[in-house]
Amino acid sequence: MQLRRVSRRVYTDFLMPSRLGEYRELLCLALELGYQICSISGFYKKVRTAGIQPGQKYLVLRHDVDSDVGMARLQWKVESELGIQSSYFFRLRTMQPGLVREIHLAGSDASYHYEELATVAKELCLANRDQVLDVLPDIRVRFRRNLTMTRLTTALPMTIVAAHGDWINRRLGVASTEILQDRVLREDLGIELEAYDAEYLQHVDIRITDAHGDLTWWPEDPVQVMQKGMRVIELLVHPGQWRANLWVNILRDSDRVLEGARYRLGWPLRLRGGRRRLPRGAPR
User: Fold this and answer.
1) How many structural domains compose the chain?
2) Is the pTM of this model over 0.70?
3) Is residue 280 part of a domain?
4) What is the DSSP string of 40-105?
């Protein structure tokens, strides 16, 4: 089983051809089955104003651009040709102002895929949830700075954001959404919605995401779910999982190995000015 998992990972990371045609077919099927494909903001606006139309089926399409911006651009081109809208969330390392503005000006969502909590936890080699919460004020300061910088760089409002999930979040049992539990911060930054907010998700019947390394979907195949006529589906895709971009994946995997090794060895990163702030009880 382990060998099969490794071989599948090698295939998806380094050998897999583009699945862009498969992606187009999936969207075309959704349209044929009567689904209105929309962005998170588009769907949420319907919920808050006129409400969801009786009998109408919705596919809320979301992209988390963790890597391979080139594939994100290709998927966006497919959606443009089909006349549909969706949501794209970019990390700092994948943020390309030109593409982001293009997506926004066409009426789709283009915003920030934030990960400051995970970044700081790895930098300081934090060992548990309590240590993360101890430095949460500093993490929020960094989030504010990064979002403000990204807004200035792209000249976009970015009022809807989405948390990035990292291995360190799972290890410590604390999600990056903890940053936005501060209502004052949200209001001050004008954040109208976080993609994991209950007030949005309560209107979604099922959330489906592509499962990395398995060429499958979790928890169910969207084709089968659509054929059953599920009313509101959120489909989360990661562009990096739709082809093997050799150099992008080599760099991504190398970064993961190095940061994982440094974390296990307990080597906190030196912050600007040669100083580092550690929470109570952290290794020094």
Assistant:
1) 1
2) yes
3) no
4) HHHHHHHHHTT-PPTT-EEEEEEEEESS-HHHHHHHHHHHHHHT---EEEE-TTT--HHHHHHHHH
Q: Give the C-alpha separation, 168 to 146, whole Å.
A: 20
Burial class (CB in 10 A: 0-12, 13-18, 19+), 192: middle
In this predicted model, what pLDDT tens digit does every residue of 89-101 receive, in sequence order?
A: 999 999 999 999 9
State which H helix or E strand residue 223 sits in: helix 222-228
The CA distance from 19 to 37, in Å, is 20
Q: Is 279 domain-assigned? A: no
- pLDDT tens string 147-172: 999 999 999 999 999 999 999 999 99
Domain limits at 230?
2-274
Residue 45's contacts (CB-CB under 8 Å, 6 or more residues apart) are none
Residue whose token pair is 């979040």: 169
Q: Is residue 282 part of a domain?
A: no
* CA distances in angstroms from 150 to 121, 190, 247, listed in the order given: 22, 14, 25
> Over the chain (284 residues), what is each successive 10-residue block's mean pLDDT?
76 90 98 98 94 92 97 98 98 97 98 98 96 98 98 98 96 98 98 97 97 82 97 97 93 92 88 43 40
CATH number at residue 162: 3.20.20
Angle at 211 between CA 37 and CA 250, to 5 degrees: 110
Query: Looking at residue 178, what DSSP letter applies?
Result: G
